[in-house]
Amino acid sequence: MKIVVVGTGYVGLVTGTCFAEVGINVICVDIDTNKIENLKKGILPIYEPGLEELVTRNTEAGRLQFSTSLTESIKNADVAFIAVGTPPGEDGSADLKYVLGVAHEIGENMNDYGVVVTKSTVPVGTSQKVKAEVQAALDKRGVNITFDVASNPEFLKEGAAVDDFLKPDRIVVGIESKKAEDIMRKLYKPFLLNGHPIVFMDIASAEMTKYAANAMLATKISFMNDIANLCELVGADVNWVRKGIGSDPRIGNKFIYPGIGYGGSCFPKDVKALVKTAKEYGHDLRILQAVEDVNDDQKLVLFNKIAKRFGGQLKGKTFALWGLSFKPKTDDMREAPSLVIIEKLLHAGANVKAYDPVAMHEAQKTLGESINYCKDPYDTLIDADALLIATEWPEFRSPNFNVIGKLLKQKTIFDGRNIYDQDEMKELGFEYYCIGINKK
């Protein structure tokens, strides 16, 4: 089989590379010439564990190619994946101009039957718009080429995307014909040999499944953060509450860790888009609106604790910040809670010294030189009034607390991810503030 993946961002690059890894011939297409030239040299635009090795291996084997020309790449392709961005508009809706633009270009250049698959996260009904764009381009050419559209949403976790693709929990495919189903089943056959399930359904249901999944996970996070804030007020320990409810198989122990809010490229955007879609149909998703509101408030929780501890006098204070990316094992800064904390601290006249294992370069694109970027975690602590934990990178879990205590002006830690034990911190002489625990 020959497939084309349009878009070499997070989803497109992982998708194309992993298909090549199982022996399929793949061409990844992008209009960004610099990005394509770098990919040909093995230089990736994103950080994702294990991905660089796979790109290099499959490029050298000739199974994975990179191009800026969809015109040439689409010829004789069995499947064309659309994996371009769908940035949120001001009203929260997904901007489909890139998706539909690619669909039109596919119609302008395809020369035989193929399946056009939306891999980007798109609102319900988008595949029919894609179909209309492809058909309009074919009509303009005056050619009679048949094609099918399909929806194949991704369920990749940043930091574990390669494993998620190669060993999927499930593969969801929305189709409109038996022919499209047969082609998609053949394409995914290498991933089904180990028993990973593939679920075929109508296209609208597949499009909805992606949004519903992310919305449910976001709901669990916001619910637990809301409970954590109540725990502080009533004197309960959210860690025990989490363990107590997580042992119930109906609830499970994933996505119930309290913190400073969710971020990234999926949850914030998808929750907003689903709420907007519902409004377009005259329906209010009241629970999801609350999920978004709680998450916005939660990103302020750590700053509010800092302001309260220092009596609102933050001007001239210096804070060490460990972690910038929205989660570990990624350099993704989109909607990262750290950005909200930094913005509030800088606005209050404080200084920030930050360290992140991989996200410093990405953070600098957004923050510029407004903060100090340090070479290692301990460098941030010099002359700092407190340490803030914004991302739970593994290397932050067991630091040298003796060194931390000596370098900080005051032995004060604000832990936005609850990675340390409160009793241990007290024994070591630290003032320790975390999420969902208020032991006197």
Topology:
Layout: E1 2-6, H1 10-21, E2 25-29, H2 33-40, H3 51-60, E3 64-67, H4 70-73, E4 79-82, H5 97-109, E5 115-118, H6 126-141, E6 148-151, H7 161-166, E7 171-174, H8 178-192, E8 198-201, H9 203-234, H10 238-246, H11 267-280, H12 286-298, H13 301-309, E9 318-322, H14 337-347, E10 351-355, H15 360-367, E11 372-373, E12 386-389, H16 401-407, E13 412-415, H17 422-427, E14 431-433
Helix pairs in contact: 1-3, 5-6, 9-11, 9-12, 11-12
Keywords:
Rossmann fold; 3 domains; six-stranded parallel β-sheet; N-(1-d-carboxylethyl)-l-norvaline Dehydrogenase, domain 2; 440 residues; alpha/beta; single chain; elongated
Task: Give a summary of the structure in a few sentences.
It is built from 17 helices and 14 strands.
Instruction: Provide the spatial order of strands within the biggest beta sheet.
Output: 3-2-1-4-5-6
Secondary structure tally: strands? 14
Judging from the principal axes of the Cα atoms, what is the shape?
A: elongated
Beta-strand proportion: 5-15%
Task: Report the C-alpha radius of gyration, rounded.
Answer: 24 Å
The number of helical segments is 17
Q: Which ranges are low-confidence, i.e. pLDDT below 50, for 5 or more consecutive residues?
A: none
- Tell me the structural class: alpha/beta
CATH superfamily of the largest domain: NAD(P)-binding Rossmann-like Domain
CATH class categorisation of the largest domain = Alpha Beta
Q: Average pLDDT across residues? A: 95
N-C termini distance: 64 Å
Largest sheet: 6 strands, parallel
